[in-house]
Amino acid sequence: MSATIVAGRKVPVGIIIFALAMGGFSIGTAEFAAMSLLPYYSATFGVTEADASHAISAYALGVVVGAPLLAVFGARMSRRWLLVGLMAFYALANLMAALAPSYPLMIIARFFAGFPHGAYFGVAMLLAASLVPHEKRTFAVSLVMTGLTVATLLGVPFASFLGQTIGWRWGIALVAILATATATLILLLAPRDAGNPAANPLRELSALKNRKVLLALLNGAVGFGGYFATYTYAASTLVEVTKVPEHYIPFVFMAMGVGMTVGTLIIGRLADRGLIATGWVILIVSFALQLIYPSATAHIWMVIPVLILINAFSSFGTVMQTWLMNVAGDAQTFAAAMNHASFNMANALGPFFAAMALSAGWGLPSTGYVAAMLYAVGMALYAIMIWDLKRDQA
User: Fold this and answer.
1) Is the pLDDT of residue 359 over 80?
2) For the segment 371-386, what is each residue's pLDDT rounded down to a tens digit?
3) What region holds the Major facilitator superfamily (MFS) profile domain (predicted)?
4) What is the CATH number of the domain that holds 244?
5) Distance between CA atoms of 110 and 69, rounded to whole angstroms?
């Protein structure tokens, strides 16, 4: 990758993208650690695991609410200062969640912690894409997303280890430290831009009138909910169904993180060559893996490879991000932020439907069947997206 001028000195583009990916690492640790720490904070607050999953849904709802608000009101701001501010807020909100004395207060803190998520990823990915040639945009986006996937490899297992040893609150406090480090790196390394005073917040909202944007967001919200339906309860399933010793769980999540990281990088390359085909591969393979998952949970030698593969094919957001860049027109910031809002709506819907299956007494393995149904809906929506695009191009 080439270099860009920052404060009169050349800074390699790769270093800037690393700083942006650090934010993804912080966000990924916060988002996924809440799932791996679920058994511990549910015990602390004396709530069931199904009820404890509301902390995950509260975060996702915060993303859905915060992404459009911050994208619209931050449209005229310098991207550098907007990203710094988002990470500073993220650090504070996660610190509040770590210190929450009661479960309702934790829910509130998690809701506000979700606010910067979508806007941060949206602005960071647009900045990364602007630093590379057009034909490498998806790979640049995937590099920013790699911060999130590496979080599942390192951040989440470490947070889970902290939860098992000195307490789940330290696992969440870790995020505040990472977010503070990210804000500092971006302040030092990101290009100094003056913002765009001519930007029109109402023009950003025009994305809501764009059918192609709305279809993509709906696809992300519904179709990708399947991933979170199983991931949310993966730790509980491994311990209670597969009978994996509890101290092995961080290593299982680390292996899942390896799958996600490698898969994201490969998918980023493939999507630059064939965006639509890559999306189909992700959805079809994920659907098949989720159907296998319930049977695999009975055997440790089956369930771990299946979980690794599920994570390897989890980068549908990378495909949708480039899709939105292609169809969003002048509403790039809003559409990019809403992409992550839609995937966090999936983060809310997946655990919600999975919790319904658990409450009905179907058992933890049934989350795989819930996931498969959501992926099936995702495939139908994806087919509609492609048909709609080709109809307009005809």
Assistant:
1) yes
2) 999 999 999 999 999 9
3) 16-390
4) 1.20.1250.20
5) 17
Q: Is 47 left (phi over 0), alpha (psi -120 to 50) or beta?
A: beta
Report the alpha-carbon distance of residue 392 to residue 44 in Å, rounded.
54
Q: How far apart are the C-alpha atoms of 290 and 313, rounded to whole Å?
A: 11
Q: How far apart are CA 118 and CA 209, in angstroms?
A: 20
CB count in 10 Å sphere of residue 373 = 17
Higher-pLDDT residue of 134, 191: 191
The pLDDT tens digits for 157-200 are 788 888 888 888 898 888 999 999 999 999 888 887 776 666 66
Per the CB < 8 A criterion, the answer to whether 16 and 4 are in contact is yes
What's the structural domain count of the chain? 1
Q: What is the mean pLDDT of the chain?
A: 85
3-state helix/strand/coil string of the chain? CCEEEECCEEEEHHHHHHHHHHHHHHHHHHHHHHHHCHHHHHHHHCCCHHHHCHHHHHHHHHHHHHHHHHHHHCCCCCHHHHHHHHHHHHHHHHHHHHHCCCHHHHHHHHHHHCHHHHHHHHHHHHHHHHCCCHHHHHHHHHHHHHHHHHHHHHHHHHHHHHHHHCCHHHHHHHHHHHHHHHHHHHHHHCCCCCCCCCCCHHHHHHHHHCHHHHHHHHHHHHHCHHHHHHHCCHHHHHHHCCCCCHHHHHHHHHHHHHHHHHHHHHHHHHHHHCHHHHHHHHHHHHHHHHHHHHHHCCCHHHHHHHHHHHHHCCCHHHHHHHHHHHHCCCCHHHHHHHHHHHHHHHHHHHHHHHHHHHHCCCCHHHHHHHHHHHHHHHHHHHHHHHHHHHHHHC
Q: What's residue 87's pLDDT?
A: 94
Report pLDDT for 293: 97
Q: What is the pLDDT of residues 45-101, one digit of tens each?
A: 877 777 777 788 788 788 888 888 887 777 778 888 899 999 999 999 999 999 989
pTM of the prediction?
0.78
Strand partners, 9: 6
